[in-house]
C-alpha cells in the first residue's frame, strides 16, 4: 500500500490485529527483512512495516537525512491517527526511533531499537573504514548519510521516558560501549545483547527479534 507524505510516496504493509506496531528497517533494506518476525507479530499487533524514502517501493529522493526519515514517520502516524504505537527500529530505523521519541515524548507507548548509534563514532573502526571505501567506490547517498550522521545529543535521549529496550549483537558493528552509553542516557531502559549474533543476524530473515518484541511487550 502507498501513502503520500511530505511530497513523496511511502510504501507500507499493514497486517494483523491488536495494538499498533510500527517497524522500520536498516540502511539499504526494505520492510521485507521482517517477514519472518511479522508472521509471529501479526497475531498480537496491527503491524505497519514501512519502507523508508529512497528504499524499496517508496519514492527516490535526491538526498537523504535521518531527520527527513523521522519527519516521514511522524507524518505517517498522524495521517493514520495511530495512537501510542509500539515502535521497533533496526539500525537506521533505531536511529529514527530515538530521534522521534526524544522530540515527541508522548508519541509511542514503547520504544524498541536494535543496533542504533547517536553519531558515527559509535561505529567500530573496521565498519567505518568499510563504509568509507564503499562510498569512495559508489558515492552512495545512503552510505554518505551513515558516515556523516546522525548527531543526537545525550541531552535529547534524557527526554525519553517511555519503556525502552535497546538491543545489539555480541559481534555488532556498533560498539558495546556506545550501546551502553545510549542505554544509560535513557530512563526506564534496558540493554539486551544477543550472544554470538552480528548487527543483523538476529533480525534479518529471523524470528528472534519478533519473539523478543512479543516478550517485552507482554511483561
UniProtKB/TrEMBL annotation:
The keyword Nuclease does not apply. Keywords: Hydrolase. It comes from the Bacteria. The keyword Hydrolase applies. Gene3D superfamilies: alpha/beta hydrolase. Pfam families: Abhydrolase_1. InterPro entries: AB_hydrolase_1, AB_hydrolase_fold, AB_hydrolase_sf. GO terms for cellular component: membrane. Residues 19-120 form the AB hydrolase-1 domain. GO terms for molecular function: hydrolase activity. This is Alpha/beta hydrolase. It comes from Vallitalea longa.
